[in-house]
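Human: I'm a chemist; would you kindly supply sequence and structure tokens for a protein?

Assistant:
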Amino acid sequence: MTLLQQTDAPRDADVLTPDRNLAMELVRATEAAAIAASPWIGRGRKNAADGAAVDAMRAFLGTVACDGTVVIGEGEKDHAPMLYNGERVGRGDGPACDIAVDPIDGTSLTATGRPGALSVIAVSDRGSMYDLHHVFYMDKIACGPAGVGVVDLGQSVRDNVRELARKLGKHPSDLRVAVLDRPRHEGLIDEIRSAGAGTRLLSDGDIGGAIDAARPGSGVDLCIGVGGTPEGIITACAVKALGGVLQGRLAPRDDAEAQWAREAGHELDRILGLDDLVSGDNTYFVATGVTGGDLLHGVERTPQVIRTESLVLRSASGTIRRISAEHRPEKW
């Protein structure tokens, strides 16, 4: 059984019909993770926040009607608490699926109380997520539907800025490009500004930056730079639902990691498109804000109520939902 079911009703031709939206169950897990992490906001203990989020997410994933396997557990990268690769989640009585998790995308943001931290889950049919765990980082470019056939990781930054501006009917100076504020990106930031575009520097968490670049009205037109490969797979599930562009190319940190990747069968110069990163057209992406930012409001706690805001995307149906929820504190 796949995430998209065939109807048994008699028809002139077999027609695919949407099954229950699995993301509407998964959002309970990201809400739980965000709420569990919220007491640690601004307290300088990112592993404590991450551990609380992991425990809550694992508990709620166990209630979801799916036969899920974690293929990307973000914690592997920095030895943080984690939902580990190969872990089975869900009740086991639903569709077989790959699951990528990041209980907190932006643990440093949470620890310091800065905006933009998210709790995230991405899901697709079993065997559809590209196995990139051999290399922790990749060079990425993301934008909205206007960039299809226009932007390309193989082009220069100047050409990507110029061509996207032309397609959008803008001047390059009107474009805003999101990029992680890291020493490794000093030259890239100079290139973006030399091309005439402005930058939006991200202190952490490039999933939100890429989604902003892919959705209309966010104020961000493009997201580029080197970020985590787990985040790349998770983002691919979201960008598919938004109809945008995401490309990636592996960026090994050293010769040993490059050799490891080659032995695993990866081509280091290959530009990976959306269908390479996540094959198939039925992906789910759910995120709940931990600390407030441009994409989502953060967790708001009062003695009477806990408020959360979540984003729920599904590529097969093209639906984009924002869910505002109020939770009774005594239930948590």
